[in-house]
Structure formats: C-alpha cells, structure tokens
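To whoever is on call:

I kicked off a structure prediction for a single chain this morning and the downstream step that reads the tokens threw a length-mismatch warning. I double-checked the sequence; it's 181 residues and nothing unusual in it as far as I can see. Pasting both halves so you can look.
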Amino acid sequence: MAKAAVFVIDGTEELEAVAVIDVLRRAGVDVDVVSLAPGQAVVCRSKTVLTADLTFEAFQPAAYDALIIPGGTVAYADHQPFMAALAERAAAGVRVAAICAAPAVLGRLGLLKGKKAVCYPGLEPELVGAEIPSPPPAVLTDGLVTTSRGPSTAVAFGLELASLLVSPEAARTVSQDILLS
C-alpha cells in the first residue's frame, strides 16, 4: 500500500487539503496528515481547524512514497526542517506534489528546474526554472512532480495522485464513487 504525507500549516487552503486526503484514502493510500504548526491543530485559510495525525517532529520522511503540499500559503518555505526533508526526499526519488500557491515552495528548492508545472494564477514567477504551459492544464505531472492550479482543481489533483500511487483503475473507481464521472 502506498503511503503519503499531506502537510498542513496555519493558512493552508482547507478545500485542497481535505479533498486530496479524502480522494487518496478512498483510493487505498495510507495518508498521514502532518502538522508544521507547533501542535497538531492547524487553523486553515478560512478559519477551519484541522487536527493532523502527527506533528513534524514525529514525521519519519523515509516512510513515505509521496509528499504532498496543499496551497493557500507559501509559509511552508519558512519551516526549514520541512524544506530540508522535502529536498532530501525529492533527491532520493520520492514523488512530490503541490497545488495552488505551494508549487512556489517547490520552485524555491529548485525542484521545478526543467519541469513543466502549474500554480495559482499570478505565482508563475515563483516556479523557478519551470516551463509554464499555455493554456495551463488543471493538473500536470512531469516525472515525479505533480502540480495543480487551485481549489477548484483539488479533486482532479487527488485523482491524478491516486492514479500514480495506486492505479488508474483505483482513480476511476473513486471518480465514479464521488459522482464525478
């Protein structure tokens, strides 16, 4: 069974976090929600409080097949231990994914160099080294990097990750179960 970590921090876009967590769990991915806040409770962009499964201090990076960053904020980049773990695991060949503002975090680490990527409109200059397709698709996977545009693309982002981490059939089943297709 694939194992994924979804990171949350104060200001995270809750729609993106919850949609991805839900879709992946429905597809059979073992998902841990990891808080980068001081405790397990995170106050999201619209003041929704999410309770993470574990704090970053309890996070064991080598245990995961994918590291996923919802958007709403680029504050993830201020958490230096997270940034170091993200860079190390990406260099080790672990799938990384980010949506909305979060692809800028990947850009700051140089993880988008030579890759096609998308993000929330207006943040394209922060995707350092990336090729930005025009028109931008809702979700884009280039190698081990998956990016997406924003809240309205969160389910599609989750389905793309389910397809990659489990199978296209699992993603199709989830899509049908949630009445998307």
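Update from on-call: the warning came from a stale cache, not from the record. Cleared it. Sanity check on the structure: The chain has one domain: 3-177.
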